[in-house]
Amino acid sequence: MLLLGIETSCDDTATAVVRDGREVLASVSTDQDAFHARYGGIVPEIASRRHAALLSAAVEDALARAAVTLDSMDGIAVTRGPGLIGSLVVGVASAKALAFAANKPLYGINHLHGHIFAAFLDRDLPARYPFLALIVSGGHSQLVRVQSPTKMVILGRTHDDAAGEAYDKTARLLGLPYPGGPELDRMAQHGDPAAYKFPRHRPVRGSLDLSFSGLKTSVRYFLESPAGKKAKLEDVAASFQAAVVDVLVARVDAAFSQREYTGVVVSGGVAANSGLQHAMRLWAHRSGADVLIPPPKYCTDNAAMIAAAAFYQRDAVQADPLTLTADPNLPFD
Ligand code: KG4
Ligand code: ZN
To answer: Which regions of the chain are under pLDDT 50?
Structure first.
């Protein structure tokens, strides 16, 4: 089953052609970082205008790279939410038009489900249920029990900032350019993670919730203090990263010990983080669990993951090309 994927929920204009939810024939993504960098964050109006300017060419590009035609597709998968409304609308309207014109099935996909199924791209590993998924992105941080392709239960979520948001805001405090997450990750690799002990969020007993705003504030107060003014920024970055990673691994560990799982998927932009990847590999070794983390290009937003989710969920998510709507607040389940 060959699917064309379209993802425009935030600031990446992404298209892909994927066979059977796994084999990526093409995955094209144009980030808009250069357009948003000077504002220190994503400007929604700029994002939707860039999508409108880039998307048609991105669809043609993906088809050309995969050496296929629109006519040979078995369907079109598009992110319908959650995300920025103006950005989502560009992708959804284009996908509807393509599906209608080419008379192809249309699949409306939840962006976060895409992140989960990204773990199976370019791998010869079938999904085995139930598995535990940790989604850590710029907009979301949550732990999910994935019981089947369409039955998922949120076990815990952040009370405030998403992990990626905490990275981006802390990176800004450290004077790093936008997007800060990857920059902070690079800086942390040259610092001492034990230099400073920043607070780790502890949930009430039994809860699997997360919180990052206290950590971010604590870094801010430290940087404003006399000791902070003299601190090596690499050490601050590494100590911040250690705190985030500790909390995430602790929550995965707690969730994994509460129920039976075939393994753990870690995905979303922050799953590309070197410290988290390293810590999850150590945890996998310690706990004997199978841990699947997509390669960095499929951790961050991409359209291959949207085509993958559509493959697994196809019976439940087929939509009418005349009536499908974008939903910026699309619920997870
Ligand atoms: O999944 P994603 O591409 O978009 C959303 O759905 O939000 O995630 C983007 C987030 C940003 O906050 C970015 O700073 C963060 O993921 N990120 C990272 C790294 N790469 C991307 N955070 C920490 N370390 C990284 N290497
Ligand atoms: Zn995302």
So the answer is: none
**Model confidence over 289-314: pLDDT tens digits?**
999 999 999 999 999 999 999 999 99
- Distance (angstroms) between ligand 1 centre and the Cα of 263 equals 23
pLDDT of residue 171: 97
Q: Determine if ligand 1 sits within 6 Å of the CB of residue 270.
A: yes
DSSP 178-246: SSHHHHHHHHHTTS-TTSS------PSTT---B--HHHHHHHHHHHHSHHHHHS-HHHHHHHHHHHHHH
* Pocket test residue of 9, 137, 169, 240 for ligand 1, highest count of atoms within 8 A of CB: 137
The CB of 179 under 6 Å from ligand 1? The reply is: yes
Ligand 1 proximity of 298 Cβ (cutoff 6 Å) = no
The answer to whether the CB of 161 is under 6 A from ligand 1 is no
The string of pLDDT tens digits covering residues 69-123 is: 999 999 999 999 999 999 999 999 999 999 999 999 999 999 999 999 999 999 9
- pLDDT number for residue 38: 87
Question: How distant is the alpha carbon of residue 192 from its chain centre?
Answer: 27
- Residue 65 CA to residue 16 CA, distance in Å, equals 9
- Domains of the chain in start order, with CATH, are 2-118+298-313 (3.30.420.40), 128-294 (3.30.420.40)
